[in-house]
């Protein structure tokens, strides 16, 4: 066994700045104290609310923060820790949660957990006994158990969950009002009732030994009614039984109670459904046809938006970069104006300007022409691109101006000396150099436009509708607005968060792949240097 | 080394805790001081979601409730459009409110998702307009406390058209005779507006869903067939005659009527605040078909969350405080929607405008609240708009719409 060559210990500083008690350390201590204060406050709040998932995540982040900033071994960590923490919370968690939802049937009818679905079904199916009266009611206790005392035809009756109602002699109270004194029972004050309100709401006092007569319950601690449940839940067997017909409902794989003849109880719960949502997105022909058309338009829209805004922005940047132009500062300021107006507002404004009969564009600019800017499939696409050009060129103008001003003058001079013409200089020197610094921004602009929901939603709402499709999607819908329609968030369809999440994951994969490939390409640009 | 890490962490944590504890001390003192006035504090806090127009009256009712019972009420103002999705998303997590304001047509969705619980109004139910209770009833259970009934009607500018039109053609003729830019205004938009168009559709005998004898709806589509085709053909004819147009959006219609550019507009009481100072009359909607034009009735009310930990207080507040004539009248005055409580409604009817809307509402049908209704809107309006512009053949387009809705319902 060869012996390891003797290694030299690297010279170690006697003090590390992780615990060097200088002024910098004090600042760090105070900052960490503030962060820990917020963290501990958050931990206490989570503990109180019982949100244990957030509690453990927060604890982990907090411990990691303290380790990273006070340990000598985690020097590199302190630079990347904040970024990593935010990445975890705002990106990875969100993507993970979306992915998880995409494998469930979360949506209308499957909104919650099984416990809550059972609770809701029982709540909805407890019915007042037909023809029964309203009884003035007081909440009482016999020392151990809660009970109700009610007034029925001038008689006072009292009982608990275990003891059916029995007449009590000598009880007093105003006529038609809840009894105030009940011998053998203590009447609870309103404050005491509220303090135990969940017990009071859950309490059922049988009217008699016969279950058919129902049980007294109260919803406001002032009036009681006789109720009978029309559904029973058998905890052991995990089944629901209809009290009238005796039909037994069993939980099925889709998260609903189902009888043998296939009838289902309305309230269901969330269950994992595997790849069903992905199969629907690509396999169900109601969705798959529009999906491919919308995918094609989304890519076209994102690419064309970036190209048109970049070319116009670049053109203007070069124009206004010419020192011979007078007052170019004023022009530049004016050009940035569209950028200063919030996007959703501008899109709404344009929707009004492009109205076929009353819009400014048709009425004033085109002398009363009735051009269907937003309702013809191709014109609507053109309008979307046009409005996005108007919205987006100032951004490109800004970054191109910045990049142009930082181009090295000596390279230009060298080109001139070599006898390159204007076009040649622009093609071979300016543009490649410009792309080195702007390409990453173009890629992020592409990713932004790929998901430019605001513009589409405010301008056309995805319309005009596909005439041959059977889902509410249209010619200018992009993937993200398709997700919005499919998920039913706009209120025009039943909600289906599972399908919407599956589509979101598909979008994420597409945008992620294209961006990764594009970033790899930009490295080649740098080789020009 | 490790010990020193622990030390520094402990030091910063101690600082943090010190800051927290002093903060808590002062707020505790404030709480005690607040409840000195009314009944002894119960420790329970009721949370209510409401929108901007209803916040004031709900807050007023809440104050009298706090005064009488000692229970604190937190009124949270939310954007009306956010209330339904947020309620559906938050109730299952336990973060939702105890009570929320809402429209009756949410009922199907709210019950399928198990986020609301039935409330027992007892004898108080008799004090409300029957249609308002019926609207909040599903499968024999009442799920909301109604407070307002709203429906659309024909709003007429009496300076431009002195008499109420009997039929749709009369209205168009009167509008043309008035020489205004639009004979009659019906808001449409590129997505259509099936809610505003519904009375016109029902006059052809094509309601959206089949109704049982007790007024509840069955998930069986009835808007197709010959009556539906007749309505579709009529839409196409009106579109080519230029009377109806998708270019008339809600904003354009609203402004045009305010500027006296048409004697008639089909719309609800919420439009009236723009028309202050005009001479108006409220008439039944003129029927283009052989039957009466019946609009949808919408009922506004309050729901109790299925997961409420304060269900007792919530029910007490709704059944015993918000159902009073005083509270219902205050809500009417704040929002202008005719009250659902009969006593308050009668008082409000002293105003001829309110009475006009109530008279049209007497004929009207509650908007279906069954869950299947959610699948209808997306296809309905767009098809109507496409038929009006002539992009779609009326009969074929209408049939495709019915088939698509049936497909979405499943």
TrEMBL record, chain B:
<feature type="region of interest" description="Disordered">
    <location>
        <begin position="24"/>
        <end position="44"/>
    </location>
</feature>
<keyword id="KW-0732">Signal</keyword>
<dbReference type="InterPro" id="IPR006060">
    <property type="entry name" value="Maltose/Cyclodextrin-bd"/>
</dbReference>
<dbReference type="GO" id="GO:0015768">
    <property type="term" value="P:maltose transport"/>
</dbReference>
<keyword id="KW-0813">Transport</keyword>
<dbReference type="GO" id="GO:1901982">
    <property type="term" value="F:maltose binding"/>
</dbReference>
<dbReference type="GO" id="GO:0015144">
    <property type="term" value="F:carbohydrate transmembrane transporter activity"/>
</dbReference>
<keyword id="KW-0762">Sugar transport</keyword>
<dbReference type="Pfam" id="PF13416">
    <property type="entry name" value="SBP_bac_8"/>
</dbReference>
<dbReference type="GO" id="GO:0055052">
    <property type="term" value="C:ATP-binding cassette (ABC) transporter complex, substrate-binding subunit-containing"/>
</dbReference>
<comment type="similarity">
    <text>Belongs to the bacterial solute-binding protein 1 family.</text>
</comment>
<protein>
    <submittedName>
        <fullName>Maltose ABC transporter substrate-binding protein</fullName>
    </submittedName>
</protein>
<dbReference type="InterPro" id="IPR006059">
    <property type="entry name" value="SBP"/>
</dbReference>
<feature type="signal peptide">
    <location>
        <begin position="1"/>
        <end position="18"/>
    </location>
</feature>
<dbReference type="GO" id="GO:0042956">
    <property type="term" value="P:maltodextrin transmembrane transport"/>
</dbReference>
